[in-house]
Amino acid sequence: MKIQALPFLQEIASKLPLAVIVNNFILMEIDGGTSTMPGDNYCTNSNKITHCKYVVVFMILLHVFTIACNEVRKLNYISFSEAVKAGEIIRGRIPDYLPKGSFNIHIIYDITSSETWCEFEFISADAQILKNALEIEANFLPARLQHIKKPDSWWPEFLGDNLNIQTINEKGFSPYILEEKCYQGFDYTSLLFFVIDWKNGKGVFHRTICQ
């Protein structure tokens, strides 16, 4: 989605006779050189009115980009190579240890939080490669994996509220949990929760928000 933010804000700046509310408690009027901000009437001087306009424009710009970033991307790829070419591994949306022969890949990615949901299929010849990467099957679920919101129609119904290992196994899936570092030099981590149907060559994973 392309946002023409700068021309939009320039137009507002040139026509700003109004008040702008920031964080619901700062109110400033620059029409006629008056101000209702706490403290001195900073905007009463004509030179400072121009400065105030730039402050308002900056606050609007910040608000616009906050809204722009608060969105979810839905991506679909026929093959793993197509997803790689689109930069999904570089962006960290899918791990590089997914089988190279994976196909029918669906990704939902929350830009604000980096929370991710993914569905993929793989051929039987790649099953062992994936098993080696996922290592040990999980025998319990930490609290942040017990309630996963359903992002789209393709996400399995049983992977939702009150999730537990028994339910996953009864549906013919095997659960795996891997931990990822979120930021270099910080202790925040996210969990990659894989649920795999080895018999039918299907899998999904959920990347949690960093904590």
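[next item in queue]
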Amino acid sequence: MTRQVRDVAANRVWQIFSHDQQKVITAINSYQPHRPDVGMMVINQLRKSYQQEGFEMAYTVEQFMREVALENLDKLSPDEVMKRYSAEERLRDLSAEERLRDLSAEEQRAMLEQLKQQLGDCSH
């Protein structure tokens, strides 16, 4: 895909994801980010990736973003991570026992009564 991008200064950033090693090096060396703090983080991450993986890999923007997110996930608190997911997504892999474990005895009794009521409504 990057072969179709015209080789002009404005498009140079896209060449970071090229399969052509020389284009990648040129793009990294000439990249001028709007926010130097973020830009240097991106460039350093790319340099690290290319040093570890080599240039023969296919590397997309999406792959880069995923890699950066995974490497920085531990910098977020569990609460920050969990906010990204719905209650259904957070509970999906938990068994009924695991879901009930943190409920007080009173909450468990209330849940049981609610279930009995629902089952009673279904039988009529």
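[queue empty]
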